[in-house]
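Slide 14.
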Amino acid sequence: MLEIDIIEQNIADISLDLLKILLTDKTTRKYIRWGSDNYTKYGSEYSANQEIRPELIIGDRSTVIQPRVSKKEEEQTKRTRDKAEVFTPSWVCNEQNNLVDEAWFGRQDVFNTAGDKCWTTHLEKIEFSGEKTWMSYVDARRMEVSCGEAPYLVSRYDTVTGEIIPLHDRIGILDRKIRIVNENASTDDEWKKWAERAFQSCYGYDFQGDNVLLARENLLYSYQEYYEDRFGQTPAVQELKKIAQIAAWNIWQMNGLTLTAPYSLAPPVQKQMSLFDVLGQDDNDESEKENNELPCKIFDWRSKESLEFRSLVNRG
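Slide 15: predicted structure.
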């Protein structure tokens, strides 16, 4: 089983601001919402429509959020029933990512050879030909739909079995991009530049806030692990904050049917309704408010501008 290494208190100990960045909803400029009633046993502040505030998941509550594999079986079953949450084993992620790379490179088994629910990593340097360069591979944008803990992007552990995957055998889309950066960046500055661009090119979304946070944390931890492998030291807090900002933009909370931020107009439980609130709205107004959630925003790192996600869908 997975030995839980994602503990929010540990991130807060590095920097509380770092944890706040990971919890930020870039669309609402508030914190992401729980998006699930799995945590209501802790109180009304843990209701689905409430924000995941830092103080709710640190200190004596620092193990409230756990990877799916560490959750109780009945909780896993409930999440599958309520939200159709089913996580994919790493060997399946690998075979599907291999198909994406086969289409891009025009050849099979670029990074590894798949076996019976396993894979064998190819150790030789990846070759590029023609107009396709290592830089264009790093910049190629990829998105994981309903990403959960983002196993298609970063494969730190198998989300089904909890098995830890060694750094150089990882098969996520982002893992592959970082391998390419490792093999081709000739200087430290070049590595940092292109590692950052690799993170900027990977996107994902999920409805449930704990999954969004875990996915963002997995991206951050992956950067730290690759950085330590490359440089033999832990990245500075400012480096981590830069990656956390990318993760906060690129892994976002969204209702995949409406392309909006779930519960984005819901008031906090602490808010007291005034007489003016009562007189200024009726039941129809409240119903309309709940149905008009804010359209989700993402960031285009090349043009350096934010835009509504639905505008990209409409272009298609």
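Speaker note: The CA atoms of residues 34 and 309 lie 21 Å apart.
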